[in-house]
Amino acid sequence: MRIAIVCPYYPWPPSFGGVETIVRNVSIKLAKRGHEVYVVTTPFDVTTMKQVSEYGVEEHDGVTIYKLKPGRIKIGYARVLKGLKETIEEIGPEVVHEHNLHPHLFQLAKWKNELGYRLFAELHHPAVELDFIIQKLMIPLAIMWLKRIGETVDTFVAHTALEREWLTSKDIPNNKIVLVRFPAIPLELTNYEVCLTSLGDIAYLGRIVHRKGLHVFLKALSIVKQNFNEIKVNIAGPSDLRYLESLKMLIKRLRLKDNVSFTGIVDEEKKYEFIKSHKILALPSLKEYTPGVLLEAQALGVPVIATRVGAVPEIVLNGETGILVKAGDEYELAKAIETLITNDELRICFSVKAREFAKNFTLEKAIDRLERIYDGLLFDSGRATQ
C-alpha cells in the first residue's frame, strides 16, 4: 500500500514532540511491513520553529521524506505547506494520513476526489494544548470548517475516549471514529533491563516550556527539601530559552542549586537509560494530552508522578502505576514526591504493575490496528469497532 503521511514537523534531525514521535515510529514500522511510506513535512523544529535542515527529498529507515517550504501563514505551530498538492500528485498515494487540525487538513479534503485517495485524520485532540493566543482565537473557526469537511474524511483516528467524545461533540459521526491507542511503545521495552548507577531520584524528560509546569515542580521540590535535603533531580529536553532562564532564577531563589541539574537534550538511544536510572519520573504539566514519556517510564518499571490533565488518567493508573495530582498545586505534588521517595516497597509494587499495564499500549498493536483501518476491516455494518 502506498501511504502519504502529512505532518508539519518530522524528526530528521530530531524534532522533539509527541506528534513527531508518533509519526516517526509509525512510518518506520509501516515501511518495515512492506508498505511504501512517504512523509510530507517541513525542515523545521517544533520547539524552536527554526529551520534545522535543508528542503528537498530524503530517505531514512525505508521512509521517503519530502521537506517542503512553509507558507507565510502560521497559526501557532500550524503551517501551510507550499507545493503540497503537487507533492501528493507525485506520490500518488492510496491513503493520505494527516496529522493535526492544521490548514493542510482542509487542503487535503478539498483535493481528495480530484486526486483519488482515501483521507484519514489524526487530530491529537487539538483543544487540550493551545499555547498561543492566535490558536485560541482560531480554534472556533477551525472547528467550524472541521464540521464542514467531516463527511469528506473517511476515518478519524482518536487516541483516547476523551478525544472520541470531543470529536462526537463537534458533529463528527461516531461511525467515522476509530480508537487507536497512542502514544505507543515498542513491546520489547517492557522487558528492557540495564544495570545502571543511579543518576538521581527524579527525572523530567520533555520540552522545557511553560505549559510543562516545571516552575510548579521546583516549588514542590523546595517543600520536599525541607525533609530530604539531598534529593537529586535531573531535567532533560530542549528549552524555550526565556523560560529556562526564569527557571534558573527560581532555582537560585529557592536555593535548589545543589538539587537540580539541567542535562540538555538526551539522545534517542540514551533516553531509556536516562529514565531507568531514576526512582521516579515526574511530569508536572499544566496542559497535556497523552505524553508518551509516561508510558515509556511505566514500561521501564519506573513509577510516575503526573497531573490530572487531558487524557493522562487514561494512560496512568492512579495509585497503582503512579500518582496523579492537581495541576499547578505544588503542595499536592510535594506530598506525592515524598510518598514515593520514602516508600521503597510501594515503588516496587508500582513498578511491577506499571510494566504489565504498559503492554496495553504497544506499537505493534497500534500498527496492526492501523493496517486494518486502511484496509477497511474495522468497520462492520457501518459501526466502528472499539
Keywords summarizing the entry:
Rossmann fold, 386 residues, disordered C terminus, 13 helices, globular, eight-stranded mixed sheet, 2 domains, alpha/beta, six-stranded parallel sheet
Topology summary:
Blueprint: E1 2-6, H1 18-32, E2 36-41, E3 56-60, E4 63-67, E5 70-75, E6 78-81, H2 84-91, E7 95-99, H3 103-115, E8 118-122, H4 133-149, E9 155-158, H5 161-169, E10 177-179, E11 200-205, H6 214-224, E12 233-236, H7 241-254, E13 260-264, H8 271-276, E14 278-283, H9 292-299, E15 304-307, H10 312-315, E16 322-325, H11 330-342, H12 344-358, H13 363-374, E17 379-380, E18 383-384
Parallel strand pairs: 1-2, 1-7, 2-4, 7-8, 8-9, 9-10, 11-12, 11-14, 12-13, 14-15, 15-16
Antiparallel strand pairs: 3-4, 5-6, 17-18
Helix pairs in contact: 1-13, 2-3, 3-4, 6-7, 6-11, 9-12
